[in-house]
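Example pasted here:
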Amino acid sequence: MKTIPLPQRVLYVIGMGVKIPGHTTVAAAEALSRCDRIYTIVQEPPDVWLPASRARGLSVVNLMSLYVEGALRSDNYARVARTILDGLNEVTTVGYVTYGNPLSYDSVAQALARESENAGWRLEVVAGISSIDTILCDLRMDMAPGIQVYEASWLVASRTPINAAAPVILLQLGHFGTVRAHYRQRRRAESLADLVSYLAGFYPDSHTVMLVQSSSDARPASVARVKLGDLCNVREDQWAESVYIPPLQAPQLRADVVARLTAEGPAAERS
């Protein structure tokens, strides 16, 4: 008797962008339409972001009940990743739907990517608009010629030096100073004291930084300009998850390198 091969199992990791459904890409919609089951942390109702053809009858599992308040965030992420992987034992095609770019600051997606390296199933990653993209758009800024991006707690814990001649984006201020989950009670600005102390080694207290909260369907984007020394005292309506730090001074370009870059190059060879 001829053996019929089993269909290959597929796990889609789908980024939905920051503003849902406005940032939903054609690629994301196509991936969603192929899934037998979807696991998600997206809090907007599924009928807002699911393709119309799949809005009914598709199994959608909200993962937020697995995120335990006060637990180690790493334990929460591991629990969620295992739940998604277990789903591949029950259906052929699973989707993990998350905000932003799915492989940017998403530990669950990173865990799934690692598991896929030696797994019997295929991983498909669908890119989305990240918070870095929206922050730069909200500020009307370009990332050229260069930009530094750090998770705020990691920056301080690793004592990584900052180049004050290049802009900096610090992410996840709401999780600063703790590895435990705080989803229901937002951290207060006072918790940023260690961050401000560390940044004071590179900038004066008078240096202006921008707290940036990108837009969603429920609120417009906001940019609050504050002095670095006042960061721990910002009002509740100024609070944001990200901060942009402009350069302290313009970088000094080497004259000899600029001269070489601007000199006329060798004549093209004649054919």
About this structure: The mean pLDDT is 90. The two ends are 65 Å apart (CA to CA).
